[in-house]
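Allow me, if you will, to draw on your knowledge of protein folds for a short while. The matter concerns a single protein, recorded as an amino acid sequence and a row of backbone structure tokens. Kindly check, if you would, that the fold set down in the tokens agrees with what the sequence suggests. You will find the record immediately after this paragraph.
***
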Amino acid sequence: MNLNIKRTLLGCVVLAATATLMGCVTSYKPFGVAGGYKDRQIDDQTLHVEFSGNGYTSRDTVHKYFMYRCAELTQQHGFRYFMVIPTALSGAIPATGTLVRSGGFDRTQMRKVHGYVPIIIYSGGNTGVRYFSDSADIRMFNDDAVITTKVAGWDAAEVVEQLGPFVHSTGRTAADVPKAWVFEPGHPKVRAEDLLPSAPKNSTGSGV
């Protein structure tokens, strides 16, 4: 077999392997050619977390993997809760107000959020394929955190427990992200959805 034929066969094998790899939904793993998670530490309570999917991975799957990674890291760092914070308060830009402190930290890192996590959509060149990626800074804290304004966050143990079956089955087992908690100075935490206005008990629009 001459050298050109060998090179052609090798190229076919590589292309086939790449097609097989890229034809699968991104699994929960460190970042690689088909996507995955990556993170870096900003300070003892603050991390930057990202999860990127390939062209076969839905926005919902990327978001759930991202949330699971945030919760997993929160537990690994010895904290119970996490919340998404604006990049301006992650250390790159000086913060202007003290919102949550814990473990002796005086750096101001948190502001009120509404459970929003940004999703970045980027195009696959001329292929028309869309790729989804979650990227945000998170602040981790415990029950002894000094809360000076109302903030929303997630219980890491709840997220890990609820999303675990989804993550470990690569999306084959259905699961939803737990609802966020709201933390307010001098009050026990409550579910964020419990603070939403409800419909009036007696409806006047039914004609009754």
About this structure: Residues 82 and 140 are 4 Å apart (CA to CA). Confidence is low (pLDDT under 50) at residues 8-22, 92-116. Residues 3-22 form the longest helix (20 residues).
